[in-house]
Automatic annotation (TrEMBL):
Keywords: Signal. The lineage of its organism: Eukaryota, Viridiplantae, Streptophyta, Embryophyta, Tracheophyta. The keyword 4Fe-4S does not apply. This is Hydrophobic seed protein domain-containing protein. It comes from Linum tenue. Residues 31-111 form the Hydrophobic seed protein domain.
């Protein structure tokens, strides 16, 4: 009887150890357009003629690094919809992606 209780306790402890602990890591290559407000700020800075230091692109670009060009285009397109008023959204998309080292895929149009 004691050995069955010990075996059950060991079994439950192993289950807790193996299945209850999961690493707290962010999903690589995922896009959340809600976080891309920093990209809209970067876009506004890029489209103004600026003398002096250029805007920091790191906060925006770090959000889309690791994405394929198409995924980055879809992500930024979704973020720009409704946030960019009176501006050609496809031009804005191209400017942002180029700043971050991505390219707009051939034939891609950000539909609004």
């Amino acid at each position: 009887m004691a050995s069955s209780k010990a075996a059950l306790a060991l079994f439950l402890a192993l289950n807790l150890l193996l299945f209850a602990s999961s690493p707290a890591t962010a999903t690589v290559g995922a896009c959340d357009p809600a976080n891309l407000n920093v990209c809209v700020d970067l876009l506004e800075s890029l489209l103004k003629i600026r003398l002096g230091p250029q805007p920091a692109s790191q906060p925006c670009c770090s959000l889309i690094n690791g994405l394929a060009d198409l995924d980055a285009a879809l992500c930024v397109c979704a973020a720009l919809k409704g946030l960019v008023n009176g501006l050609n959204i496809n031009l804005a998309l191209s400017v942002l992606l180029n700043q971050c080292g991505h390219q707009v895929p051939a034939g891609f149009i950000c539909a609004y």
